[in-house]
Structure formats: structure tokens, C-alpha cells
Amino acid sequence: MSLLLLKRQQAVLLHFFARLKPTPPVSFGIIPVTAASRHLSSHITRTNTPGFLQFTNRPVLTMQNITIHTMASEKQVKSEEDKKKKITDWVQPGDNSGEFKRQVSSFRDWVSREAGAKYPAEKGRYHLYVSYACPWATRALIARKLKGLEDIISYSSVHWHLGPNGWRFPTKEEANAEDGEAVIPDPCHPDFTHLRDVYYESEPGYAARFTVPVLYDKIQKRIVNNESSEILRMMGTEFDDLVEEPYKSVDLYPEALRKEIDAAHEWQYDLINNGVYKSGFATTQEAYEKNVKALFEALDRCEEHLKDHHQTADGPFWFGSQLTEVDIRLFVTVIRFDPVYVQHFKCNIRDIRSGYPAIHQWMRHLYWEIPAFKESTNFEHIKKHYTRSHTQINPHGITPVGPLPDILPLGEEVPAVAAVARK
Ligand SMILES: N[C@@H](CCC(=O)N[C@@H](CS)C(=O)NCC(=O)O)C(=O)O
């Protein structure tokens, strides 16, 4: 759209509002949000529809603060049905299948070590937005530590609560009181209050979910990628020219294992990583049962696999002696299993600590023996986020106290397991 056309549309709007001025504030309609509209005052209010703002006829509109692109492209004009959607609708209203359907991530660029890359690997250039609560984001946090990228990629965590406007940044006061490193206001944009502001800065008409993780380029002021599997993959290799040994030779996706890694990801993503969400967000008995049974069959398969590895004693990881992406991606779900998924998502056919000895051992080894795993796990955020944000599942927002402890020490078992072991 040309600048001239835009200006003309702004002028028409201004004229219209000038005529409405004497009347009390009324809602006027919704328009697509733009980066500029963040700076608008009371004429604009947020809506619960991602990508759109509410216009009112409140006092004096100047040309300066109607710096809104009034472009309502085909893509941005939303149906009445779309407008009713809420961030907290995990299953779309009217979807009788009762199935949670995860959206496809939108930003899919890559940081690259290649010369002339659009997003070159550079120290200090990228920021990683995460939530400690989120298993997908924690994949990236773990990789950042394992690959020695702590001085190369900065990071911060959002507040644990996900509200009607999505993830928000902690205030300065909260940052002091919060439990957890880097739980701070947005370090890249001090005036941003919500993660969605970062999305709108990159793409004014963005109309999908505002998810973590987000890998952000501080120079181009743009989201590079918001898909955790890809952020994990690029952290594994693309910054290797900037890190010293021993980090350079940490290979999370080794050539010789690629086929097996890809195959494991395929079923584990669908049945386990996403399977807990499909169980927990289901709104029909059929959808819940289908997904929870498939989840536990997949966990049984993990148990068999890890039991064999432990018996042959070729190493503590999924592929024996080599820590790979598979360990990271499975860990972030399994570590949340007993504290949250068992009760909150009704994934309670068994729990890990009493029902899956080999998975339990594998998980505890990663947590207690490899600092990147423990340091990226914040049980406080994990427990509070799910139980107090998903009000349709847990209307009173009460966080269960147990199980205690969040994770057992290595070598200690729940009493029933220990009793059997003594026999
Ligand atoms: N495919 C994405 C999924 C990320 C995702 O769903 N993150 C959740 C947190 S666990 C989120 O930010 N949800 C906010 C929302 O959907 O509004 C990825 O793997 O990066």
C-alpha cells in the first residue's frame, strides 16, 4: 500500500472521529494492530483477538497519534467467528472433535554461520525469550548451556502467568521478588509489557498465537524463529565458530545417528511432547482417552528402550554414550510429568517415579549430573503456570502441593518402589 493512500485513509479516519467527539466514548470497531499503534493512547484499547485493536471515539485524535496503517488486507479482515476467539481457548469453540490442535510456528528464518547470511552468527546479537514453564522453550535453554552460548545469546524469562493477553514481562518489582534467573522486564524494549508486542514489532498484522521460545535479532529488530525444534538445531551448529572447545565438539545431532534421531522425534513429538497437551486440553471424553492411551503406550516404548540401554550399560543417554537432541526433547516433558501432567492434564495411568523405573533413572541422571538440565528447570514456574493459567481446567487456580519432592534424589525411591527393591 502506498504511503499516499495510507495518509488519505488516516485523514478520513481523523475526520470521522472529529465528528464523533462530543458523544461519550463508544466502541467504534476493530482494526489491525501495527508497531506504531503501541504508542497510541486512550483511543485504542486492546482486544482479545490477536492482531487487532479496538478503536473508540475518545478525545482529540491528532494526525500524529493516528499513525496506524489502516490497511485491512484480505488476510487481516477477520470473520465474526475469529473475533470471538480467546487466547485461552485451547480447543476452538465449535470444534466438536474436542481435540487440541497445535498451530504451526510462523517465523522460520535461520541464524547461519555462512558468509553473507541474513542472520549471521554474532556474539551479543540475538536474544532468546523463554518461559521457564514451557517445555518447548526449555529445549532452547538447555541447548544454550550445553553449547556454551551463555555469553553469546542473551535470554530472559516471561512471568509464569499466561493471561488473556498472552505471556507478559515481569515488572521491575516482580523481577526482584521472582524466583529465577533472568525473570525480568523485556531487556530489548523497556516499554513493552507483553510478548505479543515483540510479535507485532516484527509483523504488525500477526494474527496467530504469541508463543515462546522466540529467537530475536536485536539489530534488525525482528523475530528470527519461534519454532523450538529449529532453534535447538541451529544452536547446535551455527554458533560453533564463536565457541571454544569443549563446546564446539558437543554434537547434538551427529551425522551417524541422524536417521534414528529423526525417527525418535517423529513419534515422541506427536505422542509424548504434544500428547500431554492433547490429553490435557481435550474437551471430550473420546479425545482425552484416545490421546492419553497413546501417550502411555509411547511411554511404555521409552521404558523398554531405556531399560535395554541400561542393561547393556553402554551409557546413560537415549543413544547410550551420546547425549543428543532426543535426550533434551524428551527430558523437558518427562521432568514436568509428575509435578504437573499427572494431575493437571489427567495423564495418570501411571506416574514416572513409581511406574517407569528406567525413564525415572534416565531423567534423574540428566537432572542431577548435567548442570544444563537442572539449571534450566524451575519447578516454581512450571507448577504455577499450568495450574493458575489454565482456568478452564482448574477454575480456582489452586496449585497442588505434591508430589514432594518435585524430583527425587538419585538413588532414592518412593517407599513402595524401595520396598520391592529390598525384597
Ligand atoms: N511449536 C512451538 C510451540 C511453542 C508453544 O506452544 N509454546 C507455548 C508455551 S508451552 C506458548 O507459548 N503458548 C502460548 C499460547 O499459545 O498462547 C515450538 O515448539 O516452539
Could you explain how this protein is built, in words?
Residues 254-386 form the GST C-terminal domain. Residues 73-92 are annotated as: Disordered. GO terms for molecular function: glutathione dehydrogenase (ascorbate) activity; glutathione transferase activity. Its EC number is 1.8.5.1, 2.5.1.18. Belongs to the GST superfamily. Omega family. It is built from 16 helices and nine strands. It folds into three domains: 3-71, no CATH class; 126-249, Glutaredoxin, CATH 3.40.30.10; 255-422, Glutathione S-transferase Yfyf (Class Pi), Chain A, domain 2 (Up-down Bundle). It is globular. It is of the alpha+beta class. β8 (214-217) and β9 form a beta hairpin. It has helices at residues 3-20, 80-83, 135-146, 172-177, 195-202, 228-237, 258-273, 275-281, 285-312, 325-334, 337-344, 352-355, 357-369, 371-375, 379-389, 415-422, and strands at 27-32, 44-46, 52-56, 126-130, 153-157, 162-163, 166-167, 214-217, 222-225. The strands form three sheets. A four-stranded mixed β-sheet has the order 5-4-8-9, sandwiched between helices. Mean pLDDT is 84; it is low at 1-8 and 10-79. The chain binds glutathione. Glutathione (GSH) binds next to loops.
